[in-house]
Amino acid sequence: MSSTLRLGSRRWLGSGGRGGGFGGPNPGSRDPGPTPRSSGPRPRYNRFSRTHWFERLYNAGPAAKYAAGASGVGVVCFVYYNLERVPVSNRLRFNCINVQMEEADGKRVYKELVREYEDRILPTNHPYSVLVNKVMARLLPESGLADRLDWEVAVIQDDEANAFVIPGGKVFVFTGILPICYNEDGLAAVLSHEIAHCVAHHVAETQSRYFIGLGLAAAVAYALGTSFDLVHQTLDLAYSLPGSRTQEAEADYIGLLMMARSCYDPNEALELWRRMERGGQQSPPQLLSTHPSNHNRIGAISGWLPEAFDARARSTCRQLDRCVSEFQHAFEEPEVEFW
Description:
By secondary structure, this protein is mainly alpha-helical.
């Protein structure tokens, strides 16, 4: 922690090195000798001198107070005006980035990623690409974004276990995650989670939170007269990281309901994270991570499973399951009893 050391209001007069003066010797002057010790209060160092900012504002004139008050009211009104509810989860959040800005940023990122992985993107007729497109075709009608975005899928030949969807409907799946998905339902759990980030506009929310955090860090650092980096790191730990973990948990919830309504088995989402926990590398403590721990995700998904199965039952899946069962039964061989 850094601070500015000041010598109060005392003015130090020097005469060529005595008394620690800032100026050089005064030509033509005579050394007056030691300065007599004053009987008044000794000068004190003022640490964190900007902590008196509030006191100065309190003692300021009416114009300064009105300006500060108007600024505070303006900030409150701006935040209130940009409050909204997240689709599906109904969580209240601050978001000042509109959809057009979010998608424009997504297009820029998409072009950069295509240039980066251009030589490793599998053709559309590759079995992996066909599988991913098949799962996407079932999930998108339940996302509410099927006709609103220009969806594109890119499967990348890479051992990294990763998948993501950027704003604008651009899907990237790395082949390294497919063995962890294990089957089509597991892949649906991954893709529905990533689509859910688009449904909830989490990228826009993150950018909005960054602007608020940056302004808040600058204000606190100025008021306390301390390091901006220190305040920013503290706010990141107390504000940004918990917000990111909330988004990830929310995407788990929205994605689970999405895959259930798309007639995939919600239990596979649970199995997916169990496989991730068994085969994953050592992750940082949840407090220092942008994602919930695998253990906590498994617990949360277990609690949401009844709601997911209820959503599945209320969709067209019951009729589909009955048709599949009747079709399988028609091709079963009759049982033969031996007397």
